[in-house]
Amino acid sequence: MTDEWRPEGEVLALVGDSLTQGGDWGALLPGETVRNFGVAGDTTDDVIARLDAVIESSPALVALLVGTNDLAWRRSVEHVVRNVETILVTLRKELPDTRILVQSVMPRGHEFADQIRDINRHLWQFAPTVHAGWLDLWPALALEDGELNPAFTEDRLHLNEEGYRAWAAELAPALERLRDLPPNSRAITLPDLGGSR
């Protein structure tokens, strides 16, 4: 059992929106000490506004999944990417020894697929710059056209029990891989791109 070597009370902070909030993580991730920082309706701006609470919890690991609600508010791909980058840079700076996992924005209705793929491509490229792991959830959850698999949802956005099980089946081994990486102690700053946008 891999749990035996884990430090007592090592906290995993799950950060995101209703997708994160709705998971029964105690059952889905047995052996993890989970703090659920998922808040229904949250956008990337909302997560930035409440990052202090995540930082104050001093988690050993952070798994981030956010961005889909921004699209409902018609925010641009650039807005989402820049905000997620800000979240990651802030976490890395404030929690230098914490292992961070960035999860791809999940599929939803196929009409959002191109935007989400674009966001995910940027985040996949950015994650290594803050020494964060990357978990692409699309192979497990999306149909070929980018639609969230109907077996996993009733409303093309939120997950049912099957959907949560499929997500956890990807997340659990990704967290184990992340634990095998050396902790990071080097703070990363965003380059100055000529003023804020």
UniProtKB/TrEMBL annotation:
<feature type="domain" description="SGNH hydrolase-type esterase">
    <location>
        <begin position="15"/>
        <end position="166"/>
    </location>
</feature>
<dbReference type="InterPro" id="IPR013830">
    <property type="entry name" value="SGNH_hydro"/>
</dbReference>
<keyword id="KW-0378">Hydrolase</keyword>
<dbReference type="InterPro" id="IPR036514">
    <property type="entry name" value="SGNH_hydro_sf"/>
</dbReference>
<dbReference type="Pfam" id="PF13472">
    <property type="entry name" value="Lipase_GDSL_2"/>
</dbReference>
<dbReference type="InterPro" id="IPR051532">
    <property type="entry name" value="Ester_Hydrolysis_Enzymes"/>
</dbReference>
<dbReference type="GO" id="GO:0016787">
    <property type="term" value="F:hydrolase activity"/>
</dbReference>
<protein>
    <submittedName>
        <fullName>SGNH/GDSL hydrolase family protein</fullName>
    </submittedName>
</protein>
